[in-house]
Amino acid sequence: MQATQQVSDELEHWILEQVRGGQPPESVIAPLLRQGWEEQLAIDAVEAAMRRHLERHARDSGLPVPVPVPAPVEWNGAALLPAADREVQVLAHLVHPHVVVFGGLLSVEECDALVELARSRLSRSATVNLETGGDEMHRDRTSQGMFFRRGENALCARIEARIAALTGWPLENGEGLQVLRYGQGAEYRPHYDYFDPEKPGTRGILARGGQRVASLVMYLNTPRRGGATTFPDAHFEVAAVKGNAVFFSYDRPHPMTRSLHGGAPVAEGEKWVATKWLRERRYD
Ligand SMILES: O=C(O)CCC(=O)C(=O)O
Ligand SMILES: [Fe+2]
To answer: What keywords tag this UniProt record (predicted)?
Structure first.
């Protein structure tokens, strides 16, 4: 009987009342279990009611509707995560913006090899011009960069498989790795990684894989001073340490995600990063 159990309007209303009243999920599910609901069905019912509520709320307020995003770690969960061929450390976890700092995602050798593979292919970084959908040079971004194609070489393929395992997000939804080099004084001013839905160029970009929903910035060296990744809305910064990485997700293309971030100026030395962007759907 439970497999076909539908959430009535009345039950949905009751669930939302409980959640609004600050009841934790266990207390919302308990009465359903007492009525004979199977646990997983009760959890699914509460989650579905919440999702419908958020979607309604988004539409009513003229906001983009939230979509599922990768969620690589649990609250107070394991400090070491298996990620295909490597164990990765969880160093920090922030709720809003949703940020996770990873330790030891790449080995020292992998960082060095990526830098060497990228070095001869660098050119001044462009930012996507959303008026036209094309690339352009921008003074907000004074780094040099290049893109690998997904699976372009064995190293990229290995790192991509590791990231897919770590994030639980399909490998096919990832863009190819981007490598950036910042010389002394170079920076990437605060920006959002999603594509602005209001801009005319965005439609064409979204046709391939949908929106970006998460970013992973991997540090390929340790600048002597400066070069942190900053999240101005959270007054939070992540130090660039070789082999570590910062992950952040954004469930809708809107500043309410507080996913504004930038690469602070490199004060001394240089900074190399590899960025992986994850899309909603398969990116071919
Ligand atoms: O260099 C950083 O710390 C941030 C890089 C970044 O925001 C990007 O590649 O989109
Ligand atoms: Fe970015």
So the answer is: Dioxygenase, Iron, Metal-binding, Oxidoreductase, Vitamin C
Average pLDDT over residues 64-82: 96
Residue with CA closest to ligand 1 atom 10: 193
DSSP 8-class letter at 143 = -
Residue type, 84: A
Q: Are residues 85 and 9 in the same domain?
A: no
What count of other Cβ atoms lies within 10 Å of the Cβ of residue 7? 18
Q: In whole angstroms, give the CA distance from residue 47 to residue 58.
A: 16
**70 belongs to a structural domain:** no
Give residue 155's identity as a one-letter amino acid code: L
Q: With bands split at pLDDT 50, 70 and 90, how would you rate the model's confidence at 169?
A: very high
> Using one digit for the tens of pLDDT, what is the confidence trace for 86-116?
999 999 999 999 999 999 999 999 999 999 9
Check whether 1 has a pLDDT greater than 60: no
92 and 123 assigned to the same domain: yes
Q: What is the domain range of residue 49?
A: 2-60
Q: Is 271 helix (H, G, I), strand (E, B) or coil?
A: strand
Pocket of ligand 1 contains residue 143 by CB under 6 Å? no
Q: How far is the CA of 71 from the centre of ligand 1 (A)?
A: 20
Ligand 1 centroid to Cα of residue 188, in Å, is: 7
Do 168 and 239 lie in one domain? The reply is: yes
